[in-house]
Design goal:
The protein has 126 residues and is an alpha+beta fold. It has 3 helices and 8 strands; from the N terminus they run E-H-E-E-H-E-E-E-E-E-H. The strands form 3 sheets. A 3-stranded antiparallel beta sheet has the order 1-4-8. Strands 3-6-5 form a 3-stranded antiparallel beta sheet, with no helix packed on it. Strands 2-7 form a two-stranded antiparallel sheet. The chain is globular, with a radius of gyration of 14 Å.
Length: 126
């Protein structure tokens, strides 16, 4: 299955090094049924509008992951046009280059990562 993930530089470097990445976060406080790492199938140019405030988009990595490794779930996000929207997403507790094949990588959303970092430093974001 072709999926996308916004990720930090640290996560990207760990992925490239061949490390098995592990995350069993239940995302408490966020309205999602996902556990661990979250992936999406929408065009990243659209998804950045509702995920930009809750992800670290230094890198956007497009990957092929066996659908059996992913759990289909629903996330509740701020709609850029007002209100809220529910989006289908996919999650997994661990992944690596053994389970994911990188198809494309872009840094075109990096400016949003810098903004998120500044907002964290100001205490606006956790």
């Amino acid at each position: 299955m072709k999926v996308h993930r916004f990720m930090s530089g640290g996560e990207y470097l760990k992925l490239l090094s061949g490390e098995m990445l592990y995350n069993d976060s239940r995302h408490e406080g966020w309205l999602t049924t996902s556990v661990g790492f979250c992936f999406f199938t929408e065009d990243p140019d659209d998804a950045i509008h509702w995920l930009g405030g809750v992800t670290d988009p230094e890198y956007c990595v497009t990957m092929e992951i066996d659908e059996r490794c992913l759990k289909k779930s629903v996330g509740h996000y701020r709609n850029p046009d007002g209100g809220a929207i529910d989006k289908t997403e996919y999650s997994c507790i661990f992944y690596s280059l053994k389970t994911a094949r990188i198809l494309n990588v872009t840094e075109k959303y990096r400016d949003r990562a810098e903004l998120r970092k500044m907002l964290r430093e100001l205490g606006v974001l956790p």
